[in-house]
Design brief:
Elements lengths: L5 E5 L4 H12 L3 E6 L2 H11 L4 E4 L5 H11 L2 E6 L14 H22 L3 E10 L12 H20 L4 E7 L2 E2 L8 H14 L6 E2 H13 L7 E4 L7
Parallel strand pairs: 1-2, 1-4, 2-3, 4-5, 5-6, 6-9, 7-8
Helix pairs in contact: 1-7, 3-4, 4-5
This protein binds NADP nicotinamide-adenine-dinucleotide phosphate.
Length: 237
């Protein structure tokens, strides 16, 4: 159980992070969430309850990440769902956009692990986030696949270097979260229907499906260095 454990969720104002916060709170954990948008943090706090601590933080800014961990003090588990991702054809995409993606999804998690680890309880854990396109090539996802593979590799090496702290990586499949809110509704629905029809489970994922796996990783003291695929059988297709 997570009763009394202090859990920091960077990216906890939306999607998988928000559901993880909800699930951990239900088990009696103390929750700190952080992300860039004050508005999203305020809305998340309204949903989660006044006891949740919120911090504005941009993980691409190394100094901000360092001061964030200096400010919040010690805690038991770190979960980093923070990411703003993008895709596009390899030849057509500006390299600046790809660098931005790495700044956000790779370096953000790298800084969080680097500055968060010294403040974590030795019995605690870090959970990082990769994604299915690292393992299942998809047209238009060359950079995202590479960044996800980099995060997975980072997590596995950190499981050795930071031991006895446990470090795991979750690799979600296609999950219906606000991450695709910028997509026109019709295109989003048809994308989800197309994916669902090919998956053994015949549906795309929900944020709760992935949050469930994060809560398992936080609680099972015998699991470290794993990449947990939560993707409805996507890798079998
Ligand atoms: N949804 C999927 O289909 C899917 C598939 C594969 C992998 N994943 C991975 O799963 C993780 C969670 O995704 P999700 O679907 O839950 O996304 P989401 O709903 O868009 O949530 C992402 C969260 O990250 C925060 N964030 C983004 N950039 C940040 C930054 N630089 N600094 C601090 N916070 C930042 C966002 O809040 P602010 O905007 O306030 O910063 C938001 O709270 C991500 O790593 C994502 O790549 C998702």
């Amino acid at each position: 159980m997570l009763q009394g454990q202090r859990i920091v969720i960077i990216g906890g104002s939306s999607g998988i992070g928000l559901e993880t916060a909800r699930g951990a709170l239900a088990q009696g954990a103390e929750i700190v969430i952080a992300s860039r948008s004050e508005d999203k943090l305020r809305k998340a706090k309204e949903k989660l309850g006044a006891k949740v601590e919120t911090y504005q933080l941009d993980t691409t800014q190394e100094q901000q990440v360092k001061s964030f961990f200096d400010t919040i003090g010690s805690f038991d588990h770190l979960v980093v769902t923070a990411a703003a991702t993008s895709g596009g054809g390899f030849l057509e995409t500006d390299t600046a956009k790809v660098r931005e993606l790495f700044e956000n999804k790779f370096w953000g998690q790298y800084y969080a692990a680097k500055y968060g680890a010294p403040k974590l309880s030795p019995n605690g854990s870090i959970t990082l986030f990769a994604g299915v396109v690292a393992y299942k090539a998809m047209v238009g996802s060359s950079a995202l696949g590479a960044v996800n593979a980099a995060v997975a590799s980072l997590g596995q090496t950190l499981a050795l270097e930071l031991a006895p702290l446990r470090v795991n990586v979750v690799s979600p499949g296609i999950i219906d979260t606000p991450s695709r809110i910028g997509m026109p509704e019709e295109a989003r629905r048809s994308f989800y229907e197309g994916v669902a029809s090919k998956l053994p489970v015949k549906r795309v994922g929900r944020a709760e499906d992935v949050a469930h796996s994060v809560l398992y990783l936080l609680q099972n003291g015998f699991v470290t260095g794993t990449v947990l695929h939560v993707e409805g059988g996507h890798l079998l297709t």
